[in-house]
Write a structure and sequence with these properties.
Main location: membrane
Strand order of the largest sheet: 1-2-4-5-6
CATH class of the largest domain: Mainly Beta
CATH superfamily of the largest domain: F0F1 ATP synthase delta/epsilon subunit, N-terminal
Protein name: ATP synthase epsilon chain
CATH architecture of the largest domain: Sandwich
CATH topology of the largest domain: ATP Synthase, domain 1
Structural class: alpha+beta
Number of helices: 2
Function: Produces ATP from ADP in the presence of a proton gradient across the membrane.
GO molecular function: ATP binding; hydrolase activity; proton-transporting ATP synthase activity, rotational mechanism
Pfam family, one: ATP-synt_DE
Oligomer: single chain
Strand content: over 45%
């Protein structure tokens, strides 16, 4: 029986996160999912949201990762998250995220005026990503 989880977060740009943890909490399309060592195997689609990782090396240490969707696989006390993009709280450029939020809000208004459903959907996703990054950066 494993005493800890190994957590890996990977994007097309490479490895974003690799640590041992006592717990991982992520939001899936079916709701929030908490993973402890020796959890049953699971594959779940993730929402654009934060992933909370309770580090094994320090009970009070929590890492936060902004994940823009993706898939989480749990097997043999290994939590693997594959996402289009992901950033740790310490790596988020808050001013860039704020600018992205403003751009997305402007795109939403323009899409509503043009009644462009596809553009509205893309802009809404962009807004959600920007807000997620801003929220995760506040955990620092």
């Amino acid at each position: 029986m494993s005493q800890y989880l190994t957590v890996n977060v990977v994007t097309p740009n490479g490895l974003v996160y690799d640590h041992h943890a006592s717990i991982v909490v992520a939001k899936t399309t079916d709701g929030e999912l908490g993973i402890l060592p020796n959890h049953i195997p699971v594959i779940a689609p993730l929402l654009i949201d934060e992933v909370k990782v309770g580090r094994k090396d320090d009970d009070g240490h929590v890492d936060w990762i902004a994940v823009n969707g993706g898939i989480m696989e749990v097997r043999d006390s290994v939590v693997s998250i594959v996402a289009d993009s992901a950033e740790r709280e310490r790596d988020i450029d808050v001013s860039r995220a704020e600018r992205a939020k403003i751009r997305a809000e402007r795109m939403i208004e323009e899409a509503k005026q043009k009644d462009d459903v596809d553009e509205l959907r893309r802009a809404t996703v962009a807004l959600h990503r920007a807000i997620n990054r801003i929220n995760v950066s506040k955990h620092l």
